[in-house]
Design a protein that fits this description.
Radius of gyration: 21 Å
Number of strands: 0
Largest sheet: none
Structural class: mainly alpha
CATH architecture: Up-down Bundle
Shape: globular
Number of helices: 19
Distance between the termini: 20 Å
Order of helices and strands: HHHHHHHHHHHHHHHHHHH
Helix content: over 70%
CATH superfamily: MFS general substrate transporter like domains
Length: about 425
């Protein structure tokens, strides 16, 4: 008889999940939405805000905007596993509240900035006190039943995505109506404070991880190297996020190349960004639910293949509407990659180590978010914009081959094990 793995044997991975897990899920979806909107609300006003701090030349504005956008991702890549380890000892709910309160204070601090270095320091501290998304994922993944992880994490991803779509629009509206860029940061800080208060109402069934006391800061590397499949998923998530972010710096100039310098260029480029998110929004919950029944590996392969096939033709489009259609199709497949990979992590790692595990995988996405735009800009400057889409498609195809070759097919469960687990759960 096969033995039951620690993850399978944990009580909160039963078919029922923790008591009230659906309420926890929907509360966290709302919290994720508000927090994501808060964090992205400053995106459209950041270059304008730099002018009020004395940054005048166009090249300097572009440079410092890039630094301010990338800096939190780089620092978060190193901080996320440490906060994940704390979450396993102190609770994931506490980490959600900690991160949202830190964002509240830092967003308000950015609104009071008088010099460039103030803004840089605040953005750096946002990276230091990051970990909100990883804590939210770990919280939901430890409360939901094991056979609903894809469904739950798919909806959580949807909340984050919708917030990211709505945030920049709301930030632009606030700035235009108030004629104040600073007010956007204050509004984002208040939204983060609301998240903290909402998170207080979330119920968490939590048992501290065994082996208390001080722990090595290198435990993230241990769980990455000693848990079968974790290194494969780490690279998968890095490459997926890298591919998503690579094209971001070139979307607006590519739309201009297709349509010319129209007065509505910013609006058209905004649609090209948003339509990918709309495709993601429509399909992500469905893919998450289907992955619970047909298998996470299978859905992951489908999504990576579809992402590659939707990205490559963008190198050859001749009209804006062709580009827009392909961006929508891309979003349909992109929406299934990260939730499915996160669900696989939940299957691989015992409940008591999931905070650390999701902190480690968050590092992968942060590194992809940091390196992707930089690489896209270098490729576009060196070889032309259309090559960015070709290279991005190659990254997705390489990721597809990596998953197919390195991530083993799930084995059919032993019939005696299934019978024992069913008897234990009362089914």
């Amino acid at each position: 008889m096969n033995t039951v793995s620690p993850a399978a044997a944990s009580p909160d991975l039963s078919q029922q999940g923790a008591p009230g897990w659906t309420k926890t899920l929907w509360l966290m979806v709302c919290v994720q939405f508000v927090m994501s909107a808060s964090q992205t609300s400053s995106s459209p006003v950041l270059p304008l805000y730099l002018k009020t701090l004395g940054i005048d030349s166009e090249g300097a504005i572009e440079f410092w905007t890039g630094v301010l956008v990338s800096l939190p991702f780089l620092i978060s890549a190193f901080a996320a596993p440490l906060w994940g380890s704390v979450a396993d000892r102190r609770g994931r709910k506490m980490m959600v509240i900690r991160s949202s309160l830190a964002n509240c204070l830092l967003m308000i601090g950015m609104g009071f900035s008088q010099h460039l270095w103030h803004l840089v320091a605040m953005r750096a501290l946002m990276g230091v006190f990051s970990g909100f998304s990883a804590a939210a994922i770990a919280l939901v993944a430890t409360q939901a039943p094991s056979n609903r992880l894809g469904y739950a994490l798919g909806w959580l991803s949807t909340g984050q995505l919708v917030g990211a779509l709505v945030g920049p629009v709301l930030g632009g509206i606030v700035a235009d109506l108030s004629d104040s860029n600073r007010l956007v940061f204050f509004a984002g800080g208040i939204a983060a404070l609301m998240v903290s208060l909402t998170a207080l109402t979330v119920t968490e069934e939590f048992s501290p991880a065994s082996g208390g006391g001080r722990r090595s800061p290198f435990r993230g590397f241990v769980i990455l190297t000693q848990t079968p499949g974790m290194a494969v998923i780490f690279i998968t998530m890095f490459a997926a996020q890298f591919g998503v972010r690579t094209v971001q710096p070139v979307v607006t100039p590519f739309v201009q190349e297709l349509e010319g310098a129209l007065p509505s260029l910013a609006t058209l480029a905004g649609f090209a960004f948003s339509v990918t998110g709309i495709g993601d929004l429509l399909v992500s919950p469905f893919l998450g639910k289907r992955s619970d029944s047909i298998g996470y590996r299978y859905v992951l392969l489908i999504c990576l293949f579809g992402a590659a096939m939707a990205t490559l033709p963008q190198s050859f489009v001749e009209s804006y509407w062709q580009f827009l259609g392909l961006r929508f199709v891309l979003g349909m497949f992109i929406g299934g990659i990260l939730p499915t990979a996160n669900a696989m992590v939940g299957q691989l790692v015992p409940v008591g180590q999931r905070g650390l595990a999701y902190g480690v995988t968050a590092s992968a996405t942060f590194l992809g978010s940091f390196l992707g735009p930089m690489s896209g800009g270098i490729i576009a400057a060196s070889f032309g914009i259309r090559w960015v889409f070709a290279v991005t498609a190659s990254v997705f195809l390489a990721n597809l081959a990596w998953v197919f070759l390195m991530l083993p097919k799930p084995q059919a469960p032993d019939i005696d094990t299934v019978r024992d687990e069913a008897a234990a759960s009362g089914d």
